[in-house]
Design a protein that fits this description.
Length: 231
């Protein structure tokens, strides 16, 4: 395993989560490796992170079966000198923990390979916040109801946030949050929730409506239109 030592105050690691499966995609190819306009989905995000002046290195978490394929992709797209590939875990949380083991900077950015439409402006906004946790969000424009087969309650959508990535953390804080979660058997769908549960402040910044996550097959069509236009 490669380890790195930060030698300047400007050094900052990023983690790109690319160990997820494609159960909801209905595909045999993991979603971050599915092609979008001929290019693997994860490469779009990775190129943005690698080329951003505020980031020095990207730690890519990969499923065990994809380690060789992802390593080869990084070489094909001339990204390998700026990245290190590590084996992720069986869950998202476990993959973050594996990525954090390689982080040597005081702050860390966490993103996911299934969000290919990030841009420099969004990265700039989360990096500009010096709090323990910065999270991009967008407003929820629709009604959200609570219930099983019948409506039991409604939520005030003016107080609801659609949480996105990338997110930026104080490295010690996010490590402690995951350690606590592991000790208590807690789970969360993303990392800022774990930080919030510890009592740390989570700062919201403006997200991006086009920053969609590739989850279903139709998301590929939407992403391709947003990236390449309608032809």
């Amino acid at each position: 395993m490669v380890t790195f030592t930060a030698d300047t105050g400007d050094f900052m690691d990023a983690i790109l989560l690319a160990a997820g499966s494609s159960r909801r995609m209905g595909s045999e190819i993991d979603k971050q490796l599915v092609r979008l306009g001929g290019k693997p989905v994860m490469i779009f995000s990775l190129e943005r992170l690698v080329n951003h002046a505020g980031l020095s290195r990207v730690i890519v978490t990969s499923a065990k079966d994809n380690l060789d394929d992802i390593t080869e992709l990084l070489e094909d797209y001339h990204l390998s000198s700026h990245c290190v590939v590590v084996e992720g875990g069986s869950t998202r949380q476990e993959s973050v923990v594996e990525g954090l083991k390689q982080v040597t900077s005081e702050r860390v950015l966490i993103h996911e390979g299934a969000r290919p439409l990030i841009d420099n402006e969004l990265i700039d906004r989360v990096l500009a916040v010096t709090a323990d946790c910065a999270v991009p969000t967008i407003q929820i424009p629709f009604t959200v109801a609570v219930g099983g087969s019948t409506m039991e309650n409604e939520l005030d959508r003016s107080l609801l946030h659609n949480v996105q990535l990338p997110q930026v953390f104080n490295t010690d804080v996010i490590r402690k949050a995951h350690e606590r979660a592991m000790e208590n058997g807690e789970t969360a769908t993303e990392d800022s929730v774990l930080v919030h549960r510890m009592g740390y402040e989570v700062i919201f910044v403006e997200g991006s409506k086009k920053n969609i996550k590739i989850t279903y097959p139709e998301d590929l069509v939407i992403a391709e239109t947003l990236i390449f236009g309608e032809g």
